[in-house]
TrEMBL record:
SUPFAM superfamilies listed in its UniProt record: NAD kinase/diacylglycerol kinase-like
Organism: Streptomyces avidinii
InterPro entries on file: ATP-NAD_kinase_N, ATP-NAD_kinase_PpnK-typ_C, NAD/diacylglycerol_kinase_sf
Matches recorded under PANTHER family: NAD KINASE 2, MITOCHONDRIAL, PTHR13158
Protein name: ATP-NAD kinase
Superkingdom: Bacteria
């Protein structure tokens, strides 16, 4: 007997909740903001809109379904099941934060603050939730398969990301490593830089785009569903022992970028989630390429 679908509502603490956690009371939080020329009123209004959105989305879950909630900080400890429909209630970045923990479950993005969020991944309003949940479980439902990037270390550690993966020093200082293509002869080019970014078409609207614009690159950025990645080395330093000939490129199906660590510690994290990172040390290597799984975003 198959289980009924489970709607998993993903959200994050609001700015108001974070202020209360830090300052203890509404009055102390208001005083803190006023001392910096800000009013707490707008912060409270955004908090109220988010809480109302969560109530509306929860009310739209069919009575025959199961439901659960998970906060962003607990995603790495939450066990998603194959029958889940994931409803991200918040900002675009929250979809990316969630994607790395999924394995093909459909995702619905609900925008809690239309006009303030770009709406690249949270494309829908609360009133659309019931119809979207039906579409997510219907045969032939409309969805986009967004390409993801993965990093696999030589000790079998694996990391997924929807936007981009960063490799570099944990303090964003100089990282030393060798960089090359998987399978090429030789150890690769020795480099010293502030890190390497490998990203997708979804990530091409964020951090990757800033590097691309700064470089004045003529390479075309991929679209979110393209099975293609782009990569950039940030601020590569030329010296007698380090080179700068491999600072950008593309990765297609079956292609991998390989990085071998030549410093005490390099971290690998995805989509800005530094708290959930791989740590590599001298001599370890990591390969990056298109992930076998995609984000199933309900449209």
């Amino acid at each position: 007997m198959s289980l009924a679908p489970r709607a998993v509502l993903v959200h994050r603490r609001t700015e108001y909740e974070e202020l209360l956690a830090r300052h203890g009371t509404h009055g102390q939080a208001a005083f803190f903001l006023s001392s910096r020329g800000r009013s707490i009123d707008e912060v409270v209004r955004r908090h109220d809109r988010t809480r109302q959105a969560l109530r509306e989305v929860a009310a739209a879950v069919p009575l025959t379904w199961r439901s659960s909630r998970v906060e962003r900080a607990d995603l790495d400890r939450f066990l998603f099941a194959p029958e889940d429909v994931v409803v991200v209630v918040g900002q675009d970045g929250l979809v990316a934060n969630t994607a790395k923990y999924l394995s093909g479950q459909p995702v619905v993005g609900i925008d809690t603050d239309p006009g303030r969020n770009p709406g690249v991944l949270v494309r829908h309003r609360c009133a659309d939730t019931a119809a979207l949940l039906r579409a997510a479980t219907a045969a032939g439902g409309r969805a986009e398969e967004l390409t993801m990037v993965e990093a696999v270390a030589d000790d079998t550690q694996r990391l997924l990301a929807l936007n981009e993966i960063y490799l570099g020093s944990p303090g964003h200082q100089t990282a030393r490593y060798r960089l090359g293509s998987d399978g090429e002869e030789g150890p690769g080019e020795a480099q010293a830089s502030s890190g390497v970014l490998v990203g997708t078409g979804t990530g091409a609207t964020g951090w990757l785009r800033s590097v691309w614009l700064e470089r004045g690159s003529r390479a075309g950025l991929p679209a979110p569903c393209d099975r293609r990645l782009v990569w950039f080395v940030r601020e590569a330093w030329p010296s007698p022992t380090t080179g700068t000939t491999k600072v950008a490129g593309e990765l297609g199906r079956g292609q991998r970028l390989q990085l071998t660590v030549e410093s005490d510690r390099i971290v690998v994290f995805g989509d800005g989630m530094e708290s959930d990172a791989l740590e590599l040390t001298w001599g370890q290597s990591v390969r990056l390429g298109i992930a076998g799984t995609s984000l199933h975003l309900v449209t």
